[in-house]
């Protein structure tokens, strides 16, 4: 029986059964090892606390993403106040179009679809100006961080139109969920129409107007059973049941249900009042939905770090060349900034700052952590992916019988330049390697690079 006051002795015992050959196993394994020889009151709780504080276990245990509680970072009920837009890939068509620019009003779900050849800033600028010419300019534009939305062209247009851009991070589509939801509807309706009309999938540009009409003229529960066209334009939502086919002896004729001729002034007043009532009803429905969602039981973990603290970052989104032994959680990083969408973290070795969604961050230590030389070495040993700034030299390694390239790494000092195998450089930065080989004018290097490229292409095919 170990007395409860001997904390140092228990700490040493837990280190022995956790580190080294024991392989950082979990709580139950440690508890079983200790209970075979010792008795201690509250052992399970002490072991659990010890495992939570093991800095190496934080790197390798747990999922690649930590669920965080959702909240409305941006919410509006005003028509044409917030525009969500995104490029959706639909593939080859019989024309030159391969993409659709999806533009959606947040409050009313009114959408416009623009077929285009590629996701460019020119397409985005033309589309927003076209929207502006008919409906006015939305004060807020929400999109992902693609170059077509972050370009100088869109930035200057945004400034001149006195609007505000808001960006979401890569691999966090739920932050732009309004447009991601309509993307799913577009694909679903297109698939159904292609099957019904028995046409090729490459005919999708010709079906796009039907898809847009279907989205805008569909009353939905989230809009208090109103259609987007009603809430956004005030126009009545047409119904296919309004038209009747009357069979006759000679030929069938089509008849529409009669409509009263409007008194324009009265109709305009009624329209304004009707829009106000509809928008109020929609606001109430959406607020009730949000309340129901928040009242459900969730398994999200609240953010437990702040600016100045140290965190680990998940590499779940990085391409690690299928290296299954690379740790998922790397770092620690220092938290240097926070916004409503993401945190800004700084790498302790390179000093590079990165914007990261909180679901990719895990608390490591508070701001009092001592950043020692040993900790810096620990960070540098995790296979951190560095960016190549330039290729500065090459040599032939006679013992390895292969060319090596001297690499200058972005964010590191000149003394930290390293010699890397030609094969690795060709795989990671083929364009930069080709430019260097052309400038070096070394025939042997050029032939070795060409052979490596051909071998790479054969493997990929």
TrEMBL record:
Q: Which PROSITE patterns match?
A: CHROMO_2, INTEGRASE
Q: Which InterPro entries match?
A: Chromo-like_dom_sf (IPR016197), Chromo/chromo_shadow_dom (IPR000953), Chromo_domain (IPR023780), Integrase_cat-core (IPR001584), Integrase_H2C2 (IPR041588), Retrovirus_Pol_polyprotein (IPR050951), RNaseH-like_sf (IPR012337), RNaseH_sf (IPR036397)
Task: Show the Gene3D superfamilies listed in the entry.
Answer: 2.40.50.40, Ribonuclease H-like superfamily/Ribonuclease H
Its GO biological process annotations read: DNA integration
Q: Which Pfam families match?
A: Chromo, Integrase_H2C2, rve
Where the record annotates domain Integrase catalytic, the positions are 65-236
Q: Report the superkingdom from the record.
A: Eukaryota
Per the database record, which ranges form the Chromo domain?
386-448
Under the GO molecular function aspect, what terms does this record hold?
Answer: nucleic acid binding
Instruction: Spell out the protein name for this chain.
Output: Integrase catalytic domain-containing protein
């Amino acid at each position: 029986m170990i007395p409860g006051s001997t904390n140092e002795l228990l700490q040493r015992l837990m280190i022995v059964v956790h580190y080294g050959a024991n392989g950082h196993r979990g709580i139950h394994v440690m508890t079983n090892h200790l209970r075979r020889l010792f008795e201690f009151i509250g052992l399970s709780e002490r072991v659990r606390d010890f495992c939570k504080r093991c800095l190496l276990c934080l790197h390798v245990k747990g999922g690649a993403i930590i669920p965080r509680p959702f909240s409305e970072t941006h919410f509006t009920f005003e028509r044409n106040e917030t525009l969500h837009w995104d490029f959706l890939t639909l593939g080859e068509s019989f024309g030159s179009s391969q993409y659709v620019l999806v533009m959606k009003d947040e409050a009313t779900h009114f959408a416009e679809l623009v077929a285009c050849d590629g996701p460019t800033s020119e397409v985005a600028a033309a589309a927003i100006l076209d929207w502006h010419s008919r409906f006015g300019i939305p004060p807020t534009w929400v999109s992902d961080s693609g170059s077509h939305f972050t370009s100088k062209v869109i930035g200057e247009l945004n400034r001149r139109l006195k609007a505000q851009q808001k960006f979401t991070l890569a691999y966090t589509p739920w932050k732009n969920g309004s447009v991601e939801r309509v993307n799913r509807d577009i694909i679903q309706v297109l698939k159904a129409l292609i099957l019904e009309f028995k046409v090729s999938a490459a005919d999708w540009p010709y079906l796009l107007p039907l898809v847009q009409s279907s989205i805008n003229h569909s009353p939905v529960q989230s809009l208090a059973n109103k259609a987007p066209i009603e809430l956004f334009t005030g126009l009545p939502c047409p119904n296919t049941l309004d038209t009747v086919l009357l069979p006759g002896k000679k030929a069938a004729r089509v008849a529409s249900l009669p409509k009263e001729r409007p008194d324009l002034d009265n109709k305009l007043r009624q329209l304004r009042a009707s829009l106000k009532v509809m928008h109020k009803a929609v606001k109430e429905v959406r607020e009730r939905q949000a309340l129901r969602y928040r009242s459900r039981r969730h398994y999200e973990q609240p953010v437990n770090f702040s600016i100045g603290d140290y965190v680990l970052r998940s590499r779940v989104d990085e391409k690690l060349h299928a290296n299954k032994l690379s740790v998922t959680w790397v770092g620690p990083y220092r938290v240097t900034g926070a916004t409503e969408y993401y945190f800004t973290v700084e790498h302790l070795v390179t000093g590079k700052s990165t914007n990261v969604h909180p679901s990719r961050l895990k608390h490591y230590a508070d701001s009092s952590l001592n950043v020692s030389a040993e900790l810096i070495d620990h960070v540098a040993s995790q296979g951190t992916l560095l960016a190549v700034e330039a290729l500065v030299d090459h040599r032939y390694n006679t013992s390895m019988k292969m060319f090596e390239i001297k690499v200058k790494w972005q964010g590191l000092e000149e003394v930290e330049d390293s010699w890397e195998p030609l094969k690795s450089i060709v795989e990671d930065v083929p364009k930069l390697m080709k430019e260097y080989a052309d400038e070096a004018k070394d025939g042997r290097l050029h032939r070795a690079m060409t052979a490596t490229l051909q071998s790479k292409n054969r493997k990929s095919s």
